[in-house]
Amino acid sequence: MKATVIYEVLLQIGGLTKLRLSFCAANSGRNPERLKQAALELDAQRTAAFDAKDPASLHSFFQDLPTPIDHVMVTAGAPHYGPPLEMPPEEARRGLTEHLLLALEVARGAANKVRPPGSLIFMGGTGARRPRAGLGIASTATVALPTLIANLALELAPIRVNLIAAGFVDTRLSASILGDDLDKRRDELRATLPIRRVVGPADVAALAVHIMSNTALTGATYDIDGGQQLVS
Question: Which domain holds residue 75?
Fold first, then answer.
């Protein structure tokens, strides 16, 4: 099975999925040394460091990929938080379009590289689904992504397209965002989540592998938050 992951340097999810599948990886964080180290540890077939948000770089990456491949998983991209009326217009524009355009450009690039019934898997989130003050931009982009994914599943059929929507996942990225509040957040989730534990990268990786291997799955969004939406 050949698969490609386009991921952020700080995000552990892509690395763990890559460990399960032994595939080549692309690093949107543009940190070649970090990527080289990960490739050596995980025996990746090939690597490329580039900015996934740049359409020309993304197109070049897919052009250079060997054909065929079986799966593409994209964990790059992050929501833009902040009061929408105070956000500079350019930042608001990026927040509304960046993640959606990334999915569209990946679909363009992968269309002639992935062999059916292979798949594209994108990462989204659940935290901004409910309207809240300060989340207008992130919420709009969050609820739009599943619709785009469902349509891409029709456009690319029989290649499959799916979305993983995660709640809090205990990664280095989470640690970098929360800082000293990380342990407090972990304790809160252990006490309140129905599963009574914190969701980790391995949970997301296992779901991704299942979506890749189950050829009946396409056009859907799969929540993985330990039941966080049920109690928040």
Answer: 3-231
